[in-house]
Amino acid sequence: MRNLGYETLYYWRVVCKNAGGETVGAVWNFTIETLPPVNINTLYQRGAKLELIWDPISGATNYQVFITTNLMNGFHELDTCVTNRFIDSNSADSPCRFYRVKTTVNGL
Question: In the chain, N or C terminus with fewer CB closer than 10 Å?
């Protein structure tokens, strides 16, 4: 899917058809809540701290930073910050860490 709009509610469902007939699944929905941060850069600081910096989003009230050490296990929230910068002081704890940043605009 391409060119989906932000803050727009989308609906979808699965319909399976074969020689035995048709099965219609439940209707699901999702919303693309806000613009994602762009141009995320990482900087290592002394003491093995990792700094994430990204372009600020107009109207952002905060940014939630999520982390995982294994993409198959999902992300959990690490911190919330009000600027477009986050420092992970524990980055030396794991040799491989993945981050995700979610923007909150006007409470959404």
Answer: N
